[in-house]
């Protein structure tokens, strides 16, 4: 058996005015909170767009760095090939080396010679 509270609310002008002020303060506080919520929402949107652009730019830079590394490896490989070919061209100017090279690479022989190719001996 629960008892009802013995508190009685008075309804006079002072209480009505106090309640009215309390409701107005609460409404003003809610309106201020709503306004601050909208401001926060706009600020978040303003930070999301530049952040997206920043991340996209970062990803592009990383992709380009990968491409630069790949191209640098290709360049080094081609530089080595070019150097080897220049060295070979320089060596082929010597008649004895050119003769040995042609005999080894293309299996040229003099009359009466037999050729037994050994792949590890190719210049």
TrEMBL record:
Domain of life: Bacteria
Listed transmembrane segments: 35-55
Keyword set, alphabetical order: Membrane, Transmembrane, Transmembrane helix
GO biological process annotation, one example: cell division
InterPro entries: DivIC, FtsL/DivIC
PANTHER family tied to this protein: CELL DIVISION PROTEIN DIVIC (PTHR40027:SF1)
Protein name: Cell-cycle protein, MesJ/Ycf62 family, putative
Gene source species: Streptococcus thermophilus (strain ATCC BAA-250 / LMG 18311)
């Amino acid at each position: 058996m629960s008892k009802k509270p013995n508190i009685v609310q008075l309804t006079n002008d002072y209480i009505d005015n106090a309640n009215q002020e309390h409701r107005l303060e609460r409404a003003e506080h809610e309106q201020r909170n709503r306004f601050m919520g909208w401001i926060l929402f706009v600020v978040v949107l303003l930070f999301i767009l530049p952040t997206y652009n920043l991340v996209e730019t970062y990803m592009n830079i990383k992709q380009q760095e990968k491409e630069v590394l790949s191209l640098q490896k290709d360049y080094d490989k081609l530089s080595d090939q070019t150097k080897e070919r220049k060295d070979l061209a320089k060596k082929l100017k010597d008649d004895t080396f050119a003769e040995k090279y042609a005999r080894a690479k293309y299996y040229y022989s003099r009359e009466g010679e037999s050729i037994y190719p050994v792949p590890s001996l190719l210049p």
